[in-house]
Design goal:
This protein has 128 residues and is mostly beta strands. 0% of the residues lie in helices and 48% in strands.
């Protein structure tokens, strides 16, 4: 059974950087596309970025385009989210999720109840 564990969150000042990791166990990530999501206090969970398992295509929400970079290392069974030029509005709990189809993450929005495999989340706090 596929399990996901996020790590790398923390507190940074605006303009800083963090790299989040989504490590998988139980099943190889070769068969899964991976998405990153975030949830700010009192708000719905929103899609941030995703990466395809078939061709490595990457996708970004407009709010993070040019600042965040998603990548995957299948040998390490891990997907990363490099976050640069962080803003206070990037604050939230970041989650990764897995699905065999990249289309399950797109278009980016707020309704992801159909996704079944989630990590526990990692908190990112960006101060101004």
């Amino acid at each position: 059974q596929l399990q996901l564990v996020e790590s790398g969150g923390g507190s940074v000042q605006a303009g800083g950087s963090l790299r989040l990791s989504c490590a998988a166990s139980g099943v190889t990530l070769d068969y899964y596309s991976i998405g990153w999501f975030r949830q700010a206090p009192g708000k719905e969970r929103e899609g941030v970025s995703c990466i395809s398992n078939s061709d490595g295509s990457t996708y970004y929400a407009d709010s993070v385009k040019g600042r965040f970079t998603i990548s995957r290392d299948n040998a390490k069974n891990t997907v990363y989210l490099q976050m640069n030029s962080l803003k206070p509005e990037d604050t939230g709990v970041y989650y990764c999720a897995a699905d065999p189809e990249i289309g399950s993450f797109l278009p980016f929005g707020f309704s992801y109840y159909h996704l079944e495999v989630w990590g526990q989340g990692t908190l990112v706090t960006v101060s101004s």
